[in-house]
Write a structure and sequence with these properties.
It comes from Aerococcus agrisoli. The protein has 103 residues and is mostly helical. The protein has one domain: Orthogonal Bundle (Helix Hairpins), CATH 1.10.287. 78% of the residues lie in helices and 0% in strands. It is built from four helices and no strands.
Length: 103
């Protein structure tokens, strides 16, 4: 799956979640709430990674691949909600760091 497709599918999923939020809470989450949800999932990636490496006991170790995918999903959502091109954000970071490291 290419990064453009990741972004498109991410927004399809987010739209469905917005509908659930409106149904259950009367409004969709703000960008700030999305960012906090991303941070929660990123923290879980950290814990599950520790478990994977034998440094933290967890009964959820099998969730690591899904949580890594979910954090990428959140990043695509956050970029879109802030009118940023997700693919351009990733390319700018990777290309800039690669160029800097080669110097």
């Amino acid at each position: 799956m290419d990064i453009k497709e990741v972004s498109e599918k991410s927004m399809e999923i987010r739209k469905l979640y917005h509908a659930l939020e409106e149904k259950h809470h009367g409004s969709k989450w703000s960008v700030e709430e999305d960012a906090l949800a991303f941070l929660t999932d990123a923290g879980l990636v950290g814990r599950l990674t520790m478990d994977h490496e034998g440094r933290w006991p967890s009964s959820d170790a099998e969730k690591l691949p899904a949580k890594i995918g979910e954090t990428v999903w959140w990043l695509a959502v956050l970029a879109d909600r802030m009118d940023l091109d997700f693919e351009a954000c990733v390319a700018e970071f990777l290309n800039g760091h690669l160029d800097a490291m080669k110097k």
